[in-house]
Amino acid sequence: MFENKKILVCGMARSGQSAALVLREKGANVTATDLKTEIEWDYDPAEKNISLRLGETPNDFVNEFDLIIISPGISVYAPFVEKAKSFGIPVWGEAELAYRLCPCPMIAITGTNGKTTVTTLVGEILKRHNAGTVVAGNIGIPLTSLVSNLKSEDIVVAEISSFQLETVHEFKPKISAILNITEDHIDRHGTMEKYIEEKCQIFKNYVQNEISVLNYDNSITKILNPCGRKIFFSTKEFLKDGVCLNEGKIFAFGEEILSIGETKIMPENALAATAIALAAKVSPEIIADVLSSFNGVPHRMEFVGKIDTVEYYNDSKATNTDAAIKALETFTRPVILIGGGSDKGTDFTSWVELFREKVSHLVLIGQTTDQIAKTCDKLNFSSYVKASSLQEAVSFAQKFAKPNDVILFSPACASFDMFKNFEERGDLFKSACKGV
Predict the structure, then answer these.
(1) Class of the 96-293 domain?
(2) Global confidence as pTM
(3) Helix (H) or strand (E) run with residue 15 in it
(4) Which CATH number fits domain 302-431: 3.40.50.1450, 3.90.1570.10, 3.90.190.20, 3.30.450.20?
(5) Predicted confidence (pLDDT) per residue in 286-300, tens digit
């Protein structure tokens, strides 16, 4: 397929390096390009006979190639991409390339929130079902780094972002899931309508034998109508022909799987993973066993531990109000909430409206402290304090906590006011939870 083809790979982060290497292994003449001149390579490109054009844009030489591969960080509206298309040169992303090379079935998972947790959870369930299961994609492992070692009987579980879906052409996973769609990445896609359109690229090539897993509670995904079979999941409605939460228990097609109280996972994520696993013909017994033992993904509703009867959860990845709302809705016990962070001009009203029902005390940190406090005052929620550091916030939370309470770190804001990234922020929260 790629023998002797001249292929330009743009963007030398992990996915770009992986794409360049696998294409070279397939006999292509590969040129790697990046605006940076200094690249931290996972291998020596000279040893692999990969040509380099670093520190320049491809505008002046893009027409020299048979195929262009772009990283997810490169916009499909970049001038050199538009120029390539004008010459009739196909432009793919790394996910499309991986799909073309993949010899086994693929399960692809996307959504505004919850992708990484559900992908990881589905991967754990499928590994119990099929030892040849691998997990990759937007989760941090390039898909192209795995395809050469896969066999036809294996399974790929892939997290796929809207950026990756911009560049799919023949991409057709056996099972796809859109967990939810709420406003995000409008700076990249331009409009909400375009963002929805890109998410729906995940099943654009479906004909009749494929399966789509969709969120019945999300107003957008509820009305999507892909070809093939649809399986809905819901935390609010009883679905006889889907997966749902009813009286605290997970039901699948009318049959009880397990009590949600036996899990440490957000119900929406547990239901989505159950629906996807059942679509892959995994037994309910395996699903229930993995759901009950899964502690979550670092920084995404991660169960940190328990001091006496107080449970601690690290949800540092909740960088928007939609994710933080979902986290709060998980709990029926009183929550001492730590929130706040970088100011992105967010309206916190919908988040704060939940506090009177869910939050016993709020501890605020970061740039948005005063903005969130004003919203609390406006909505008559007065049980909040301001902390000067995350360590002080944890100390306040521990003083407020009563037996069987939950201390939840779910900021609803980005991390860049006080931390390098959400991972550093979450790690500092965990280290501040003394004795956990």
Answers:
(1) alpha beta
(2) 0.81
(3) helix 14-25
(4) 3.90.190.20
(5) 999 999 999 778 898
